[in-house]
Amino acid sequence: MGETISIAVPRKGRPLESVFDRLARRLDVTDVADDVISTLRHEKAVTKGTVEAARGDVYHRLATYSNVDDPQAPEYTLVRDDRASKPRRIVFDSVTIPIDGSNGDGVPAGTSIRLVGREEPFRALRTHDFALGFDSADLVLEEVVELRPEPLDRIADINARIDPSDTDVEVVTGLGDTVYHTLMVAPDVAPSGVSSAVDRSFLTDYEGPLCIAPRYERLVQAVLGTETLEGIDFRYPSAELEEEAAIADAGAGVYLTVTGSTAREHGLVLGEQLFPSETVLMENTAEVSSTVAAVRSLLATPETETELVVGSAE
After folding, report:
1. Does 292 lie in the same domain as 145?
2. Which domain of life does the UniProt lineage start with (predicted)?
């Protein structure tokens, strides 16, 4: 019997889907990946009330999804969702995936990986519960990167700003599922209404409110640099307003965008894409064995253009 390497992953959302997309390509587990992704998308829609549950109450569906008789079948669990009625939501719990010799990369025969759902995988690595994990790069910035006067504009530079006395966790590589923290302003705040001028240099001279989501305050400080933030007053959207609407009221702000269509609907001018938000593979360097290193190399092999390539992962 070979070794099983546990890997911390998010319980739901885009980062978890990106992990399964990578595994589907690297380990030929497309059926498992499709099963987990489609199940969680359906359950998200049920929780939001956009579709009706077709298989009874949440406990019945949970029992249906989790096949405890199959040791390699995905398992799910329940959490309280943060929506108004605090409904129970079905999320990912775990799955074990064997790695055979055909995958190469020096992984010992009989090795398996066990994906284990965590609310915050990065913190699970920090406490040495796992050697490997996947999480949003945003959380690393929000937790441990050093704030400096100069800005941080690439994920590949994150490790240089992590104090090794603070944590043993480092970023290995990104998965390429990139969206951006984007600077946006109201037309009367933009210089002559030209979006190309709404960049970091614009913020250097700007004084006034900058609307951000509270959870991104430290991230924005790292991305913009403390020097740029002189004269800027952080504002936070109220529970009653969408982030883009709150930015329009404040006059300027930073928020995640994919297409920017919602921002434009609120009359905002889209400026510089300040920093990529991407799912990353991380390691706790103090917990890396030879088998963990081999699994890390297997999972880190890029197939897509990514914002991040940190070293060689060898």
Report:
1. yes
2. Archaea
What is the residue range of 166's domain? 4-176+279-300
36 plus 143 within the same structural domain: yes
Residue 246 has pLDDT above 60, yes or no: yes
Is 312 domain-assigned?
A: no
Average model confidence (pLDDT) across the chain: 88
CB 204 within 8 A of CB 228: yes
Is-above-0.70 flag for pTM? yes
* Statement to judge: residues 244 and 257 lie in one domain: yes
Q: Which helix (H) or strand (E) holds 253?
A: strand 252-257
Instruction: Say if residue 314's pLDDT is above 90.
Output: no
**Model pLDDT, residue 9:** 98
Q: Do 279 and 155 contact (CB within 8 A), yes or no? A: no
Answer yes or no: is pLDDT of 311 > 60: no
- Taking the C-alpha atoms of residue 225 and residue 242, their distance in angstroms, rounded to an integer, is 26
**Neighbouring residues of 67: CB distance < 8 A, sequence distance ≥ 6:** 73
